[in-house]
Amino acid sequence: MNTIIYPSQLSGTIVSAPSKSITQRALIMASFLSTKTIINNPLVSLDTTTTIEELKKIGIKFTFKNNKIIVERPNEFKISDYTIECNASATTLRMLLVLFSNLNEDFVFTGTKKLLQRIKDIDFLALGLRINNDYNFITVKKQTEESLIDITHTSQSISAFIISKCFHNGSFTLYFKNELDPYIIMTLKLLNQFGFSYELLYIDEKYQLNVKRIKKINKVKINVEGDYTLSSNFLVASTFDEIEIKNLMYDSIQYDKIITDTLIAAGIKVTFYPDFIIVHKSDSKPINVDISKCPDLAFAYVSLALRTNGKSTITNLQRLIDKESNRLKSIDEILSILNVEHSIIDDTLIINSTGFIEGGVTIDSFDDHRVIFMITSIASIINKEIKILNSDAINKSYPNFFDDFAKVGGKFKHEDIGIQE
């Protein structure tokens, strides 16, 4: 599918899409740590349904009812298929690879070629797993776990390792060379709802994580809050009037809430309520941000930089390379097509923007959902339409995205349907 984005004045009210990261972790924890779990307001997308279908292969039962998913775990896992199809979901692959391999069975993991190319042996070695990846299938061999874990790379495998330890050991201690990633902290906070507590210490130049089972909970209820990352491009889009986004929690467990701090630093007025946010029409100043802990906000920050008049910098870009696309390369190509003055020096992106985009161009999504979100978020500063190729990449995380875009005044046309507004 290709979509044409027309100049639009964006304002209005939407309900945030549920958090993908929380939904994925809730589904996986429910399958290992509780007899029955009710997940309220889950995100239903290509990635989350992929996780569900593969968890069914070890006997987990899922029932969809009234915007809920009821997850039921049998007393013993019953494996019906040893081939785990992960499609394009890195979270599904990395987390299930760790959890399923620790069931002492021989599983084979597969997915899109682009996904398999992103999976590195180094992400699993410290966890006692050596992978064989021929970019068609991945197999795993167990080995001795390292006593001190390096988490320089993906946090998803570490999160799964912690969940696996909870399942097999209950209480345990792990040691890390470096500070825990925000997504690992999210995992630990969700574990509280399954009866686990955690303590994080810094002793003798290493991080010590103590996890303890406080009580066994057979029935768990989880409410999935709105997704700050998926909402980020709406948060930066308010140039005509205010945009209100419901179900974004003030006390969120998501690190990407930090985007609201960036908006405020840029001179944009933000009003917080317990369960929604209003971003008001404001003149914004150039931004200077570090994305080392929030790489998924990169496109939203680029969009924010484009609506300002002046020089913005975005630093620590290295984590953009190994995503759904090479996002550093994608951003560079998109800014060139949009005729925006910019440069990349080492791991810093410098954007010199006038606050307006001429448009009248075609941009490839690179099969990356976040490219699409960014292009739509600049609809209010473009003079001419922009065509996005392969815009159905939104299904990975946000199938109803264009419905919400229309609710805030976004004008677009899917080439075989007609103008939507």
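Above is the first protein from milestone M3; the second protein from the same milestone is given next.
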Amino acid sequence: MNKKGQILLTVILVILIFSIIGVSLIHLSRMESIRIRKEIYYLKALNLAEAGIERALWKLEKFEGAPEEYTDERNLGDGGYSVSVEKAPEVGEDWYRIVSTGKVNRIQKGVKLEVKIERGGKWPPAFEDYGIFWANPSGYQGSLRFRNAVLIKGDAFAYGNIKFENAADLQDGKFYATGSVTGIDESEIGEPSEPLPERVNLDTSYYEDLISQAEESGQGSLTFHNQSYSLNGQTLFVNGNIILKGTSIIQGPGKIVATGEIQVNNLSSITGGVDLISGKKIIFKNSTFFSGDGNFIFAREGIEISNTAAVYRKIALLTPGIFKMQNATFVEGAIWADRVYLRNTAYIKGSLYGNSFEYNQIKNAVLIEHSPSSLLDNLPPGLEGGEEMKNKIVEIIPINEGCLGNCSFCLTKFARGYLKSYKPE
């Protein structure tokens, strides 16, 4: 009887010990799971805080009229961030203090940044000082003619001869030309001063590099029909054409790079801060619109805007081909083109630079209004003094990859290996 009792007691003790060990293991596993979850929340909170910093920097750099001090709070996914911006005069002129706090569940992470906000270089005089600039690098000896109620508002410049005909007029400025100016009042004709304003060249290498990337790694042609697409800050590379039809919408921010044409048709739109680069043409027609702020549009062969289409809010339109605009259309920003075709109630608010003009004329109720405030805050890539439009303060640079830890249920070490650092160069 005693032996049976001892055996039973031993079994109970063994069961108790294993139970304790099992409960301990379950508890450890649960604690490890909680720790991993907290680390994930901490990482998400940090990323959200950095997102708040990035948005504040973007707002300060992009928007000249943005408030110098403000607070902002946004919800993103399962968390959010709150950010405050204030001037930091004790640090220096044009310095700002940005404090951002990311929140996920009850976890918070804060980031503070003191930074000097520097805007891009000043636009060349060809854009800053004139509503229209005829560069005429070929030395054409004839006249550029403004016909049929064309109106130029603000100063203008031409390397050549100018004629105003059939109720065409100049207002609120003077026309400066190296040749003759006829058809307007003598008080509206200015005498060019030395040195003459320099011509502006367009270096297309930045855009050509992006087009090459699209050719090498881009997906095939895309057609959107009554669809919405969000870039989410990414660059969409397409080796082919992009066509928007119906009421399609592409929402930025981001970039679209295509080796073929980019066509925006029939009430479609592109909004939210998108840069467009095409290896062929970019076409806006039939009540479409492009809305951005500080963005650029580049097309190797040409840009066409027709039939009540609109491109506005500080846009740079650049083409070594032909810029065509006609039939109740509107552009706000800066235009650089090798050749220009303007007809039929086209309205440009900003500045137009053209090497030559098709048929050497602009006609039929075209309005060109000089507006320096409609120019981008930063010069677009390729223009004199321009640089790639990116954040000049923050850049993400990977310095290592892999993992040092041995967390339970974690596959990072198996997937990416042991921690290794990149060489400084």
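Note on the second protein: The radius of gyration is 30 Å.
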